[in-house]
Each structure stands twice: as structure tokens, then as C-alpha cells.
Amino acid sequence: MKPAWWDEAKTQLAKRDKVLRKLVKQYPDASLRTRGDAFQTLARSIVGQQISVRAAQAVWDRFEAHVGRVHPARVVIHDDEALKSVGLSRMKVAYIKDLASRFHAGSIKPRRWTRMDDEAVIADLVQVKGIGRWSVEMFLIFHLMRPDVLPVGDLGLQRAMEKLYNGGEALTRDEMREIGAPWRPYASAATWYLWRSLDPIPVEY
Q1: pLDDT over 80 (residue 204)
Q2: Hey, which of 45, 56, 72, 182 would disulfide with 138, CB 3.0 to 4.6 Å?
């Protein structure tokens, strides 16, 4: 299901920003979607670190084919070398197995995140090995479906904003935040549409 706030976000963004107005018209029926699984969303964010959306999906497909349904109990029993064979780096294997072991042991408690604000969730999850701010921002957007996340460290968002708002020239993170200020409180939706400007395949984690 799409977020309850999505239609309002589309309306407001189209009113405030001519670039986003075109993108909203280009993808009138598309929306942010969640896979509904906290572990899978975080594991996907690890797989997707520093590689393209297409490459990440290809690695994930091989990973899923190897372990079956991607569930913490299944991941922890697999040999590191076997997981590396699907295209994961040594470090990403270590990160995913550490994440799986924390979920499996119950030391991570997903239910409490719904009661926490964005920065509190980030502070909680960056304590997990291999989970940085970007990974948690993907989790906030794609799992918790928070409406106002602007991941200025995301390479795709950087490329889209530079192309569409700055003539292809580099932008600092502060400049990105300044451009994105009118999008609030729906920066997550703006980010999603800007990703779509680069790739017609929707980003999903």
C-alpha cells in the first residue's frame, strides 16, 4: 500500500516545484511502496551501499536464490564464502550476518521504532555494524514510510539534483538542503520522484 500522506505530498510538491510537477505528471499512478519486512529492508540497504540500483537488485536476486526466503534464521547458518559467491563483498557479508544474528537473538526490537522520531531511529540503528546514516534513511523511507527524509548523502539524489537544479554542476549538501527546503514536510516523496528521473525502475528496499 502507498503511504497515507502520498496524495497530499504529490499535490503540494507539484504546486511548489516545477521540476517535481513534471515528474508527478510523468508518473501519475506510481508511489512509494514498502516490502513490509524490517530485516529485509535493512539487509537490502547494506547490499545497495555504493552500487547502482540495478547492480544491487542483481546481487539481491542471487542472494535470495541461494538462501531461500531472506530471513535472519536462514542467513546466520550460511557459510561466509557461499554468501560471497553471490556477489557480496567480504565486508557486506559480515554486516548482513551481524544484522541477522542481532535480529535472530532479539537484541534488535523493530516495534519500538514506530514510536521514535527519525533522528532517534538513526541513532539507534547506526550502532549496528555496517549500518550508517544513509542505510537508516533508506529504512525510514521504505519501511517506516516517514514523509520527510532528505538523504543528502545519496549519490542518486545528488546526481538528480545537480542535473535538474544546477545545470549538472556539483552541489554541496547544504546547497541540496536549501533546494529541498520547500519540499518539507514531504522530502521523502520529492526524493523518490528525483530517483525516478534517473531510472524508470522504482527504487525499492
Answers
A1: no
A2: 45
Per the document, the length of the chain is 205
Cis previous bond, 185, omega within 30: yes
pLDDT-derived band at 178, boundaries 50, 70, 90: very high
The rounded Cα 97 to chain-centroid distance in angstroms is 19
**Cβ atoms of 151 and 192 closer than 8 Å:** no
The letter for the amino acid at 57 is Q
Grid cell digits, residue 120: 532517534
Of 50, 31, 15, give the one whose Cα is nearest residue 130.
50
What domains appear along the chain, each with residue ranges and CATH number?
6-33+149-198 (1.10.1670.40), 38-142 (1.10.340.30)
Q: Which residues are catalytic?
A: 154
pTM above 0.85, yes or no: yes
- Using DSSP's 3-state secondary structure scheme, residue 139 falls into helix
- Predicted local confidence at residue 35, as pLDDT: 78
* 77 pLDDT higher than 90: yes
What whole-number distance in Å separates Cα of residue 31 and Cα of residue 29? 7
Which residue matches cell numbers 514510536? 115
3-state secondary structure of 54: helix
Three-state SS at 60: helix
Q: 108-117 long-range CB contacts below 8 Å, 24 or more apart? A: 110/38, 113/38, 113/144, 114/144
